[in-house]
Amino acid sequence: MQQPDVIVVGAGMVGAACAEALSAAGVRVLVIDRDGPAAGTTAAGEGNVLVSDKEPGPELELALASRFEWETVLSRLPARVADVEWETKGGVVVATGDPAPLQAFAAKQRAAGVDARVISAAEAFELEPLLTPRVTAAVHYPDDAQLQPVLAATALLAAVRERGGEVRSGVTALGVRRSASGRVVGLETTDGVIACGAVLNACGPWAGAFSAEAGAPIRVLPRRGVVLVTAPLPPCVRHKVYDADYVGAVGSGDADLQTSTVVESTRAGTMLIGSSRERVGFDSSMRVRVLQELARKAVGLFPFLAEVAVMRSYGGFRPYAPDHLPVIGADPRVPGLWHATGHEGAGIGLAASTGRLVTELFLGLAPHVAAEPFRVDRAAVIEG
């Protein structure tokens, strides 16, 4: 391979999506990861591609664009890896108390362009017959989708390789090499210095640490989440279903444990049960009380789950920016250093448009969504 135009540091979903979009535009790309493709946050994800869980604003605009950009991206994948379990199953958000807050939230989303259909409890039972009878109202989101995140990330990287790019596992980025004028001319790694034209920091929850090593620190913190996985079941939950508390948990900056009920099926028949959010640094220990709370709340939403065996649980760290917006774009302090991180639990869904946006900015093209809200030099993110 010739000297890469861009080295992407991080082979998770966001890094893979950026590399795929850049390579599709003719940019020479090298992807490195200290572990391997999809080995970190991506492997601990549920694969959600959602528009239902975001307040109107820049992140929702990015999510709406990304939901349909995903279909374009998937159409570019090599046929041998194209099946990433893409399911346009839709979502159902339910209220079990006062329905007014959920209905008001849906109204705001509709005004922002989301297909959010307020339905009665009876209509919710038609969509999901096994729901608790305590449901008072619901909102149906036909555009919510799901994919298998590890399959998708590795498929994106396969597309990069097919276009002449390269992916190297087991290589750790240590910092950037800069010219006398301060511009990035290489990446310092455990394999030595690799010459390049630019470096993209797509290190997920470790992006803050790498940014400091690169001489341009940003505030990106880890936020831990845990998922329960049931034994395989016959088809029984048709949509992604969650309670109305989920939206508040997504947008909260509280460091303490927060849980809300999220239940969805996979193609293999297992049920994924979430979700939790907790700022505990990089402590990976599994806490029984978190698992118990997830299970209890899931049974409250779908009572039949009380008789279903939990097969395993897994957890991971999500990259969290203090203002709840991704960090996407060039770093003004170090010419040639770029960032794509801070998506927290929405990285799978936002990855397609993040990759497109990075590519547009890198090539000087008009961005398909407003880039300004995600800029690196905003007060909540930049350090130093």
UniProtKB/TrEMBL annotation:
InterPro entries recorded: FAD-dep_OxRdtase, FAD/NAD-bd_sf
Listed Pfam families: DAO
Domain named FAD dependent oxidoreductase: residues: 5-361
Coiled-coil regions, chain positions: none
Gene Ontology CC: cytoplasm
UniProt keyword terms in alphabetical order: Oxidoreductase
MF annotations from Gene Ontology: oxidoreductase activity
Name of the protein this chain belongs to: FAD-binding oxidoreductase
Organism the protein comes from: Kribbella antibiotica
